[in-house]
Amino acid sequence: MKILLLEDNVSLSEIIKEMFEEKGLIVDWFKDGEEALYAIINGYDCFVLDINVPSLSGLNLLKEIRDRDKTTPAIIISSNIELETIQKAYVNGCNDFLKKPFYIYELECKVDLLCKNEKNINLCEGFSYNLKAEILYDKENNSVKLTHKEKRLLTLLCKTPNITVSLEVIEQYVWEGEIVGISGIRSLIKRVRLKICKEFIQTENYGYKLITNQMGS
């Protein structure tokens, strides 16, 4: 899992970064809001944002994120607990608000709760996908080998079942900031369909949609 951390307190950032990296997660740390803004196309699974940072506030960055990405969890961390600030954070699309100072364990629990889904998504013909482990299982419950980009694609689509994901979002999330174009996306979709079944990814005018009716445990 890949986290974008926006925090200008160096000591706190180092503690947060070390904690998540010990859990095997990738953390991209930014002290400046505008620098973080340019990086949001790199395909993140969770955003942890301080409000009062240089150049662009965490609240304004969150608004920019939500203009492009409605689903990736975002946690605001701030010492500002005025009602107006908290309300604006939720209006702009945050999933949770953590008041400073906090125990690092609190942040760890919130990320685990919001950003890790242990449920299996039932696909077609007996296939299922575990979001937490990013493992695809066939109808005999054997794991199916996937490339890194195939995992990224399945994770993205399984996070938003029955909702069309645009080509732009797929490119940003799967290729993590690289420009690939529609031919590369189509090629990846074709490879994943061949490993599972054609029907479970539906082609839309400007993107793709995972078709599923239920979620397993």
UniProtKB/TrEMBL annotation:
GO terms of molecular function: phosphorelay response regulator activity; transcription cis-regulatory region binding
This protein's name: DNA-binding response regulator
GO BP terms: regulation of DNA-templated transcription
Lineage: Bacteria, Pseudomonadati, Campylobacterota, Epsilonproteobacteria, Campylobacterales
PANTHER family: REGULATOR OF RPOS (PTHR48111:SF22)
Keywords: DNA-binding, Phosphoprotein, Transcription, Transcription regulation, Two-component regulatory system
Matches recorded under InterPro entries: CheY-like_superfamily, OmpR/PhoB-type_DNA-bd, Sig_transdc_resp-reg_C-effctor, Sig_transdc_resp-reg_receiver, WalR-like, WH-like_DNA-bd_sf
SMART domains (alphabetical): REC (SM00448), Trans_reg_C (SM00862)
OmpR/PhoB-type domain boundaries: 119-212
GO CC annotations, alphabetized: cytosol; protein-DNA complex
The species this protein was found in: Halarcobacter ebronensis
Residue ranges of the annotated DNA-binding region, renumbered to this chain: 119-212
Modified residues (4-aspartylphosphate): D50
Annotated Response regulatory domain residues: 2-115
